[in-house]
């Protein structure tokens, strides 16, 4: 008899991971989904509270794992208070990585997530990375995830599968998916702003991309509605 497949979702508390959590609930069933959140010394620490709130709303078990190495390394705007996040969304012409890129972050997150999944007997790990994200992070690309999946399988002698439902979606598409999977109420408690502001600052690249996605989808952002922030 085949065992019921279970999934572990990397939940940051942001728009994309919230969408992926509810996607996993639809695909695997509420009783078969857990979440893991990483405290890596991020500037926007409010997202940790958001992740906890969203996990509660979704009714899933959440594990918080501390990783202080990124803060010790520094050199990027998400873990180094001396570096301000760049403002404004990027476009395809930009070749240099933004200063919000945390080298190796998703590789480390997914490795720890896979290790946690191994101990829980979970074979599916879900992440909200997207190759179409204009930030251009190389650890969000499909070839990176495929290579990492193989390494994890070999290194842990496991059958782990990495899922990235948003990989080739635009931000507007992710908004539509969030609607389809019933994530909009939880989206009101999500957090995306790199500056950690509530209401969202509306100036950083993450805020601009989020606003653009909701605008293109023709949907009001539940977070903006809840907090009274700028549309």
Structure description:
By secondary structure, the chain is an alpha/beta fold. The protein is 42% helix and 10% strand. It is built from 9 helices and 5 strands. It has a 5-stranded parallel beta sheet, with helices on both faces. The mean pLDDT is 89.
Summarize the main sheet.
Answer: 5 strands, parallel
Strands of the largest sheet, in order across it? 3-2-1-4-5
Could you tell me the strand content as a percent range?
A: 5-15%
Helical fraction: 40-55%
Principal-axes shape call: globular
The residue ranges in which pLDDT falls below 50 over 5 or more consecutive positions are none
Structural class: alpha/beta
Number of helices: 9
| Spatial extent as radius of gyration | 17 Å
In total, how many beta strands? 5
**Could you tell me the mean pLDDT?**
89
Order of helices and strands: EHEHEHHEHEHHHH
Keywords:
single chain; 231 residues; alpha/beta; 5 strands
What topology emerges from the helices and strands here?
Blueprint: E1 7-10, H1 15-28, E2 33-39, H2 46-58, E3 61-66, H3 69-73, H4 105-120, E4 124-126, H5 142-156, E5 161-163, H6 171-180, H7 184-187, H8 205-217, H9 222-227
Parallel strand pairs: 1-2, 1-4, 2-3, 4-5
Helix pairs in contact: 1-6, 4-5, 6-8
What would you say about this model in short?
The chain is 42% helix and 10% strand. The protein is built from 9 helices and 5 strands; from the N terminus they run βαβαβααβαβαααα. The protein is globular and about 45 Å long.
């Amino acid at each position: 008899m085949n065992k019921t497949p279970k999934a572990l979702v990397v939940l940051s508390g942001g728009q994309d991971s919230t969408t992926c959590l509810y996607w996993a609930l639809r695909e695997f069933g509420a009783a078969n989904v857990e979440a893991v959140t990483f405290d890596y010394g991020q500037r926007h620490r409010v997202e940790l509270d958001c992740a906890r709130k969203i996990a509660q709303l979704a009714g899933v078990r959440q594990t918080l794992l501390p990783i202080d190495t990124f803060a010790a390394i520094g050199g990027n705007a998400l873990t180094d208070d001396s570096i301000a996040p760049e403002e404004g969304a990027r476009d395809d012409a930009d070749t240099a990585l933004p200063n919000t890129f945390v080298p190796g972050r998703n590789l480390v997150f997914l490795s720890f997530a896979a290790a946690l999944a191994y101990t829980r007997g979970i074979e599916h790990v879900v992440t909200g990375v997207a190759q179409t994200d204009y930030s251009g992070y190389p650890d969000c690309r499909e070839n990176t995830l495929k290579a990492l999946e193989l390494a994890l399988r070999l290194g842990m002698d496991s059958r782990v599968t990495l899922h990235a439902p948003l990989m080739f979606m635009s931000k507007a598409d992710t908004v539509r998916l969030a609607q389809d999977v019933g994530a909009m109420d939880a989206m009101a408690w999500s957090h995306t702003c790199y500056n950690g502001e509530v209401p969202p600052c509306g100036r950083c690249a993450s805020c601009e991309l989020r606003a653009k996605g909701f605008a293109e989808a023709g949907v009001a952002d539940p977070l903006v509605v809840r907090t009274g922030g700028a549309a």
